[in-house]
Design goal:
The protein is α/β, with parallel strands linked by helices. It has 2 domains: 150 residues, 3-Layer(aba) Sandwich (D-Maltodextrin-Binding Protein, domain 2), CATH 3.40.190; 161 residues, Periplasmic binding protein-like II (D-Maltodextrin-Binding Protein, domain 2). Strands 1, 2, 3, 4, 5, 6, 7, 8, 9, 10 and 11 form an 11-stranded mixed sheet that branches. Strand 1, helix 2 and strand 2 form a beta-alpha-beta unit. Helix 6 crosses helix 7 and helix 7 runs parallel beside helix 15. The longest helix has 19 residues. 41% of the residues are buried.
Length: 350
């Protein structure tokens, strides 16, 4: 056996000190999740996943739900992310037809109600849901001694002339959802008659939700001309949560008649071609865990799809869910969305 010189011995020790230990943790992998711009989740929730899996999660905000899906489609040969979150039921058919997702039979799907599992092949996994509804200013209707409308047909009555503001479906997600509700209720042959009559009854149109809610809506601005606005079933809870002074009750409520609300379901999918398939599966599992699901309501004001998830007290007391929300087949939407919007524009704005 060759004897080491003193210099060789010191050099060998130095190399051993620099070499990583066999059980030392590797540098974190980066997992990229493409989302719409409204996505939000608590930092501590994400940190818990990162610590458990030795991964750094990067969220790639990519515009609204439609824009994010377009980006995923255009880059599907060289995906920019490992997962895409935020495709909803109005865009689901297009996402599946374009083949941007890989299937994953997430174990937690056995706990998710069938009404949310719109993709039997499990390429798109449901994460949350919410309802676009007409919200109304309770004080206005009480002061005027005016009954709150309960159906879409009621909105055409003369006593509600000029009292509703909606968003343009070409530029607003809730505006598009409310258009879908009208199509689901009146049918493709009758919805334009409803909108023509609504125009005659003084409906106001805003480009986006923020303008409609914070400028037009009387309950929010205090000076708006319309005591009814197309918003969300969770908006009454948000009014209490974000009030500058504590409230005993919400100043708003939702109209919950049959087909007056449109249910939006949001999905996550593993992008085809991901180099981090196992971690992507782990993140889908995490999104369906109680920890993630229970964080959703206060972050994005949506409901978890996991029935066992505990809701915030404000949601229990003030948020409202319709018993019969409107819905349309995603393939029908994909085939007709652009034409419906064009026809609506010509009927309402011209």
């Amino acid at each position: 056996m060759k004897k080491l010189t003193l210099l060789e011995f010191v050099f060998t020790l130095a190399l051993a000190a620099c070499a990583p230990a066999a059980d030392a943790p590797s540098e974190p992998t980066t997992l990229t999740v493409m989302t719409h711009d409204s996505f939000a989740i608590s930092e501590e929730v994400v940190a818990a996943f990162e610590a458990e899996h030795n991964v750094q999660v990067s969220f790639l905000a990519s515009g609204d739900a439609g824009a994010a899906l377009n980006k995923a489609i255009l880059t599907k040969e060289a995906p920019l992310a490992d997962l895409l979150f935020g495709v909803d039921n109005t865009f689901l058919s297009r996402a599946l037809d374009e083949g941007v997702f890989e299937a994953y039979d997430a174990p937690a799907l056995v706990e998710i109600p069938a009404e949310f599992k719109l993709d039997a092949s499990n390429h798109a996994i449901p994460v949350d849901f919410g309802d676009v509804c007409i919200n109304y200013d309770k004080a206005y209707f009480a002061k005027k001694n005016l009954a709150v409308p309960t159906t879409l047909e009621d909105l055409l009555k003369p006593e509600y002339n000029g009292l509703l503001v909606v968003e343009n479906p070409a530029t607003s997600s809730p505006g598009l959802a409310f258009l879908m509700a009208s199509i689901a209720h009146f049918g493709e042959d009758g919805y334009l008659d409803f909108w023509s009559a609504l125009r005659e009854n003084g409906v106001a149109v805003a480009d986006g939700w923020e303008t409609a809610y914070y400028t037009n809506f009387s309950a929010s601005s205090g000076q708006g001309a319309q005591p009814m606005v197309v918003s969300y079933g969770s908006s009454p809870a948000a009014e209490v949560i974000f009030a500058e002074t504590a409230l005993d009750d919400s100043p708003t409520a939702s109209i919950l008649g049959a087909d007056t609300c449109y249910r939006q379901i949001e999905f996550v999918g593993i992008l085809a071609g991901t180099k981090n398939r196992q971690l992507a599966e782990d993140f889908v599992d995490f999104m369906l865990s109680a920890q993630f699901q229970e964080d959703l309501p206060m972050q994005m004001f949506v409901y978890p799809v996991l029935p066992s998830a505990t809701l915030p007290a404000e949601f229990v007391s003030y948020a409202q869910q319709p018993s019969q929300p409107a819905s349309l087949d995603s393939a029908l939407i994909a085939s007709n969305r652009d034409q419906w919007i064009q026809d609506w524009t010509e009927t309402v704005l011209k």
